Structures are given as structure tokens and as C-alpha cells.
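Standup notes
- DV: blocked on the single-chain target, sequence here:
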Amino acid sequence: MTGSATTGCCGTWAPEMEPSDAADLVRHLLIRDAAAGTPPQAMTTVADAPALEDSLAPIRSSVGLRLEDVRINGARIDAVLESGDGHAWRVVVWTAGNPPRVENVTVFPRPPVFSPVAPGTVVVLNGPSSVGKSSLMTAFAERADTPWAYFDEPFLGRRPAEYLAWPDTAGPASEGTLAGIAAAASLGNQFLISAAGIPQAQFVDVLTGIPTVYVGLHAPLDVLIERQLGQRDKFGGLAEASFGIHEGWVYDLAIDTTARTPDQAAHDLAEFLAARSRHAQGDVAT
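- DV (later): unblocked, structure below
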């Protein structure tokens, strides 16, 4: 199998690596049991990096670890491992050289199964350009114990670039997005969305019956302008033009993004939602 790629039951095997070699490499890297033996020196590169060691520690310390699946795509190895107590991981191993050596590893632990309670929750973030809406949404979604989908812009799916450059020509794009979010949230899904200039009254109207939290993000104009200078994906003047965007809005939670980092702001939002949930449960109990 060294001359050409071969397609079998488990994907396309690259000519640089045999399936057995890939499985052995994963075992050396992750399982490290007696049967795996001592890995060749060429395989020991990034595996000693502290951050990588931390991410691999739960796998290496698990009991009854099994290598369930290994697939190869050129220099990339995808492996699925499961422990005797039901934990599982998908691991992506990037390799180089012949014999292959590990260059990078990414670990995706299997999260708990999400059991939604309908309706779900929608968090609407409003604030001027460069205030940190995207950073907060990303930080919050990554640290949350349950799945939150987030929207930087009120568009479902991908659109041709000219409609992103001229959003006023896209027809009922924002209306369709809000209607779709409302329908999905009614089933128990959770969303964060940037208001993106849409009036609060429109959110209130479309999200009737959906638990909705309105969050205002604030920062002084000089700070916004300074942040804007470091964002090459935005055209000039957005911070100045959108600075009055809070007018007419009423918020459940306000956050000063000059005083709170994205992680801290995400913590504040998580604490607010948890308190709100406890309060709602108390109301139901009484």
C-alpha cells in the first residue's frame, strides 16, 4: 500500500502511512500501555509541551482505554478513544516526516448529552461596533456546559459577499433569521445574537413566548475607536456611527467591557442566567 492511496471501509489511506502505523502512533501517544511498547524517537516532538500534556492527561489516566477508530487523510490522523467508564474523545493528530512524527494534537472530549427544556433561551447583545459582542459570545459559548449557537450577524447560512457588503439589498434576511431562531428556540435550543442595528421592538415581537435576555455592552468612544484600528475586517467610522445604538433599549444586564475581559463578561452572563433560572424554578415551585 506504499505506492498509491487505497480506499477501504474506513476512509482513504494516504500512501505515506499504513493504517497499522497510524494506530501504533496513536497508541504510543495516548494509551502508552505495555503492549504499545516504546515509541521511536521520531514520534516524540510536541508531546512534551505542557499545554498538550494537560489536554492528554484525562485520556492517559483513564481506565480501560480503547482505540475505537483510526482514519488517515494524508498527514492527518483522526482517532476515537473510549474509556471503560464511558468517557470518549476525538483526537486529531497532525504528523510529518517518514517515519511519522507528531507535530500537533487537538483533543475534543465528548460533552454530556444536552437534554433541552422547551422553550430555550435567546440572549440578545446590543452595543456599538468594537464593544466586544463577538468576543463575549465566543467566550460564553466555549465555557458553557450546554450548547449555545451564536450569530455575529443576522444571517442564516452563507451569503454571497456582495450581499454582505450591501446588506440593505438582501431582502428579509434579518426577519428570516429572527423567525428561524424563534422557531428553533421554541424546541429548546439556545442562542446568542448580536442586535446588529435591529430595533429591540422587533426582537420583542418575534421572540414572544421565548425566554429572552437583553444585554447592553458599553465602552467609551475613545476605547472603541482604538479597538477599531486593530480590526482590519471593519471599515472606518463604525464605532462613531453606532455609538448611540443604546437609545431606546431596556436591558436585563449591562456590562462595561473596559472593566471586564471577555471571559469575565461571559462569567457575568452565566451567573445572571443561572440566577434567572433559579428564580424561574422558584416561581414554578410556588
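- Follow-up: The chain has nine helices and eleven strands.
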